[in-house]
Structures are given as C-alpha cells and as structure tokens.
Amino acid sequence: MTEADTRELLDWDALEVGETFEKFHYVLTADMIEAYRLGVMDPEASYPTISHKVDVKQYNKKYRDNGSVNARCAFYCYNPPLAGKTITVTAWIADKYLRRGKNYIVTEAVSVDEDGRLIDRVITHELKQPSELGKKWGG
Q1: Euclidean distance between CA atoms 60 and 74, whole angstroms
Q2: What pTM was estimated for this model as a whole?
Q3: In Å, how far are 4, 42, 49, 102, 122 from 10, measured between CA atoms?
Q4: What is the DSSP letter of 130?
Q5: Rounded CA gap, 37 and 49, in Å?
Q6: Beta-bridge partner residues of 89
Q7: Calpha distance 127→136 (Å, rounded)
Q8: The domain at 15-136 falls in which architecture?
Q9: In this model, does residue 130 exceed pLDDT 90?
Q10: Structure confidence by residue, pLDDT tens digits, 21-65
Q11: 96 half-sphere exposure, CB direction, 13 A CA radius
Q12: DSSP secondary structure, 46-91, as one string
C-alpha cells in the first residue's frame, strides 16, 4: 500500500512570486563529489551541488503537479563547495509567466556553506504543462 501524497496541488494562478520555501540543509560528502566527477567525466569538476537538483527540491516537497519540462536553467558558480561542509539552500518562486498559452514557473535557489561562502545560484524555468511539449511534434 502506498502512502497518500499530502503535498498541495499546484494552483498556478494562486502561486505567489516571492514565495520562499523551507531551507534545505545537507552535508556535502567526498563520495558525492566523486560521484559527480565520475558522472561528468571530469576528475577536477568543482560544482557537484548542481547535480542534486536542490534548486527545485523544496518546490517538489511542497507541491504536486502534472510534471514539468525544463525550459531553461542558468547556473552561477562562485566558490567551489568543500567536502564535509553543511550546505544550506534557500529557494523561492522568482517569477511565473504565461507564454503562448503555457504556464511557466521560475525557481531560484542559492547555496551557501556553513562558513557563509556563497557556492552557487541556480535559476530554473519550468514549463508546467509537459503534455504541451509533444504537441509541437504532433505527439
């Protein structure tokens, strides 16, 4: 038996720009860094924080919807994260817009380590009507 999904159903019209989500904390481990470096095939890769989808993690914890398609994502990397440090991610709804009759949500997230070092900022634009994507190609 599966547990009932208690997340709020997304109401795009009622969603407020500026809504800030509960902060997310995690310890970045050496294993996480190594897994990221293996995944991107770069033994010197410095920003494994981007591989954990922390930019939309708290949105997905609060809301349920029909899924999304990543329309655009921008990563701004400032200081390489260090293994063993606790990372705190603050995320919020930065914008929402209607384009060609389709709903988009912009989520912004900032990661800071326990010493106050700014790690990265991620801005993600998501199309919240994934069924619309197939229509472009006749699907």
Answers
A1: 19
A2: 0.83
A3: 16, 38, 26, 15, 21
A4: T
A5: 11
A6: 24, 111
A7: 13
A8: Roll (3.10)
A9: no
A10: 999 899 999 998 898 889 889 998 887 776 566 778 888 889 998
A11: 17
A12: --GGGGGTHHHHHHHHHEE-S--EEEEEEEEE-S---TT-EEEEEE
Q: And the tokens for 60?
A: 């997905």
Each domain of the chain, given as residue ranges in start order, spans 15-136
Digit-coded pLDDT (tens) for 62-78: 999 888 888 999 989 99
Q: Single out the residue of 38, 13, 40, 32 nearest to residue 81, CA to CA.
A: 32
User: Where on the phi/psi map is residue 18: left (φ > 0), alpha (ψ -120 to 50), or beta?
Assistant: left
Buried-state track 17-37, b at ≥16 Cβ within 10 A, e below 16 = eeeebeebebebeeebbeebb
Q: 30 near 83, Cβ under 8 Å?
A: yes
Strands of the 118-127 sheet, one edge to the other: 24-27, 86-99, 102-113, 118-127, 69-77
Distances in Å between the Cα of 48 and the Cα atoms of 24, 31, 136 are 16, 10, 34
User: Does residue 105 register a pLDDT over 90?
Assistant: yes
Residue from 114, 131, 112, 135 nearest 122 by CA: 112
Longest dimension (CA), the chain: 51
